[in-house]
Write a structure and sequence with these properties.
Elements (H helix, E strand, L loop, with lengths): L1 E5 L17 E6 L6 E7 L4 E6 L4 E5 L4 E6 L6 E7 L4 E6 L4 E5 H4 L12 E2 L7 E6 L6 E5 L3 E6 L4 E7 L5 E6 L5 E6 L4 E5 L4 E6 L6 E6 L5 E6 L3 E6 L9 E6 L4 E6 L6 E6 L4 E5 L23 E3 L5 E6 L5 E6 L4 E5 L4 E6 L5 H7 L11 E3 L6 E3 L2 H4 L3 E3 L19 E3 H9 L1 H8 L11 H8 L2 E2 L16 E5 L6 E5 L6 H10 L2 H7 L3 E2 L4 E8 L15 E4 L4 H11 L19 H9 L1 E5 L2 E2 L6 H8 L7 E7 L5
Parallel strand pairs: 39-43
Antiparallel strand pairs: 1-2, 3-4, 4-5, 5-6, 7-8, 8-9, 9-10, 11-12, 12-13, 13-14, 15-16, 16-17, 17-18, 19-20, 20-21, 21-22, 23-24, 24-25, 25-26, 27-28, 28-29, 29-30, 31-32, 33-34, 35-38, 36-37, 39-40, 41-42, 41-43
Helix pairs in contact: 9-10
């Protein structure tokens, strides 16, 4: 996600703190499916190019907030972009060791329908590209890689001019002077080096940082350098000062590692700084003073408080999937705890009980077993849920165990007591798309190959309502479709997938099994569990019709139903009937239920709760045991 903000106008001589009401939020561009690693502006900010870890470069119309085109040239994370303003060329570099050269004017004229472009490649890099720059005239391009080398190209001929060892570790950032003669490089070894490309040698090495250097900026004359990185400090360094230990001063220190810096005004009197935290700070750059003569410059920062902060939501840093496999407990960077409902794709509540993360997880434990039907991650700082066919097919549960799921049915619709979480979630995500498809005159999807037909035969057809009648998901909820073989992702929102363009794209992208679930209402079969029934060694009444053979039932069958089966089919107590012929009398459902309640079932010498289902018994009480489950029954409180 890229967001644009307008900061308040300030006096040219002094920068005053701005109240939060004066921070003007313009727009948010959401189209990437992973981290946005770099952005550059074009044509005075009318257009924007963005590079992402989703392996794409996107072209935006910044004034409209729309994504014009997606470039899939790279095969791995795209880490950095740079623009040659005078010749209107843009270069991109990434972890696929590739550098591509684009005509920016052609890029901004691309559309989703016309997305074909000729690219030029700058070959010669042996390792992943982490830093890249091109001068305004487009006559020289430099790139830093993970092996510590810097490569220099002439973009006009795409020829590699030279490649030299700049650092012993990854070159995370670099900056090229506009005349192409000077180069600054920052590395994970904690140093910044000034190079003369004409002479082909290092002019100066700056060692004031205590850790990796991740960002560099200079004034237009390339005489003052600003550097920041993992040590959270921003230094101002005069490149023409000698010796180098007297050339720098510590401007300010952030609370988190520094990712990037941008000047806040033309006079270079302020600077915006982004860090690994979710907020962005604006700092003043104090007037120049005589730098300290001590090694590393001044020890205390020149300023301690930013003049303006754009707050963001704190990133989630920890999560735990509860054993009901529906809810998740999370903790954000500020220590706040929250509970989320995966099925409804929403936050349930904040947890302000004064308990630690581990205590909250323990407090929410339930004695229930549910198959893992999704996975989760916090890679982007928010909760992301992943669904795969093989996992979600196993997510059957009894509807009565979830009081908040109350289906709305018409009199003609059948009653059903079981629900598949994965299927109803998929139906809810694609509800608007389903409605759009059902209104189209074209026939419903039919299997067009043997794989689809065989997949359908493995599933049992049920007749739930035509659309998900349990719950709806908020329209702004984002979901992604990823092709595992190609790695390409399609990003949609619940509300927009019913629009004609998005609906058409989805129809071409959805796998056949997903279409079967949301359009044709095909649902997976239940999983079966086999078990043996035997009398408990303390059982002292007669048992009929009980053979030493395996029984089979779906894994959702509750223990109470097993007890009713035992009572109805297997038991006959001499005191229960007045004559032997009474044993053949057909029992009513109430009698069977009451008879089951008079019994109790054991597994591994543990009395089973009648509400437990067979998969819970297998998971908690038969875990690690070989063979089928052995269940033993006896009558409650038998009289001696």
């Amino acid at each position: 996600t890229q967001s644009t903000w307008g900061s308040p106008a300030t006096d040219s001589k002094e920068i005053a703190p701005a109240p939060s009401s004066r921070k003007l939020f313009h727009s948010s561009f959401e189209h990437h499916t992973d981290w946005v690693n770099d952005i550059v502006l074009f044509m005075d900010g009318k257009y924007l190019f963005s590079a992402s870890s989703d392996c794409t470069v996107k072209v935006w119309n910044a004034s409209r907030g729309t994504c014009n085109s997606t470039l899939r040239t790279h095969k791995d994370y795209v880490k950095v972009l740079s623009l040659a303003e005078d010749v209107e060329y843009m270069v991109s570099g990434g972890l696929d060791k590739s550098i591509y050269l684009f005509d920016a004017r052609v890029l901004v004229n691309l559309t989703a329908q016309n997305n074909t472009i000729n690219t030029q490649s700058l070959a010669g890099s042996n390792e992943s590209i982490y830093s890249l720059d091109i001068n305004r005239a487009g006559t020289i391009c430099v790139a830093g890689s993970s092996d510590g080398y810097v490569a220099v190209w002439d973009p006009r001929s795409q020829r590699l001019e030279r490649r030299f060892r700049a650092h012993h570790e990854n070159v995370k950032c670099l900056l090229l002077s506009q005349d192409g003669n000077k180069l600054l490089t920052g590395s994970c070894d904690g140093t910044v080096k000034l190079w003369s490309l004409n002479q082909g040698q290092c002019v100066e090495t700056y060692k004031h940082h205590k850790d990796s250097v991740w960002s560099l900026k200079t004034d237009p004359t390339f005489t003052v350098m600003y550097s920041g990185g993992r040590d959270k400090a921003v230094y101002e360094t005069y490149l023409n000062k000698r010796p180098s230990n007297q050339a720098s001063r510590l401007l300010f220190t952030e609370t988190n590692p520094i990712l990037d810096m941008q000047f806040g005004d033309i006079g270079l009197k302020s600077m915006w700084v982004s860090t690994s935290a979710s907020h962005v700070n604006k700092w003043t750059i104090p007037p120049a003073e005589k730098p300290s003569s001590t090694e590393g410059g001044n020890k205390s920062p020149m300023t301690n408080t930013p003049v303006c902060t754009i707050d963001g939501n704190p990133a989630l840093i920890k999560y735990e999937i509860l054993n009901d496999k529906r809810h998740i407990i999370t903790q954000d960077r500020q220590g706040n705890l929250a509970k989320w409902d995966v099925l409804k794709a929403c936050k349930v509540c904040s947890l302000n009980h004064g308990l630690s993360f581990e205590q909250e997880v323990k407090q929410h434990f339930q004695f229930v077993n549910f198959p893992s039907w999704f996975t989760a991650d916090l890679k982007t700082g928010c909760l992301t849920i992943h669904l795969e066919e093989s996992d979600l097919m196993a997510s059957w549960t009894v509807l009565g165990n979830h009081p908040d799921l109350k289906p709305v049915r018409s009199e003609s619709e059948p009653d059903y007591d079981k629900v598949n979480f994965g299927c109803v979630l998929l139906q809810a995500l694609l509800e608007n798309w389903t409605q759009f498809q059902l209104l189209q005159p074209s026939p419903q999807h039919e299997p067009n190959n043997k794989d689809e037909a065989s997949g359908r035969s493995r599933r049992v057809h049920m007749s739930p309502p035509p659309l998900n009648n349990l719950f709806s998901i908020r329209p702004n909820t984002i979901f992604l479709l990823t092709n595992v073989s190609t790695g390409k992702s399609l990003r949609c929102s619940v509300g927009s997938c019913g629009n004609e363009v998005e609906a058409s794209t989805l129809k071409d992208s959805l796998p056949s099994w997903a279409i079967e679930i949301v359009i044709n209402k095909w649902l997976p079969k239940f999983r079966k569990i086999t078990f043996f029934l035997e009398p408990h060694f303390t059982c002292n009444f007669k048992v009929y019709n009980l053979k030493r053979e395996r029984l089979s039932a779906n894994d959702l069958l509750p223990v109470s139903k097993v007890l009713e089966h035992v009572y109805e089919k297997c038991l006959h107590n001499d005191d229960m009937y007045n004559s032997p012929n009474d044993a053949n009398v057909q029992l009513t459902s109430d009698e069977i239920r009451q008879g089951g309640e008079s019994l109790e079932l054991f597994c591994n010498d543990t009395i089973l709760d009648p509400k437990w289902d067979l998969r819970t018994v297998r998971h908690f009480l038969w875990k690690g045991c070989s063979g089928e489950i052995r269940l033993e029954f006896k009558q409650k409180d038998q009289k001696k």
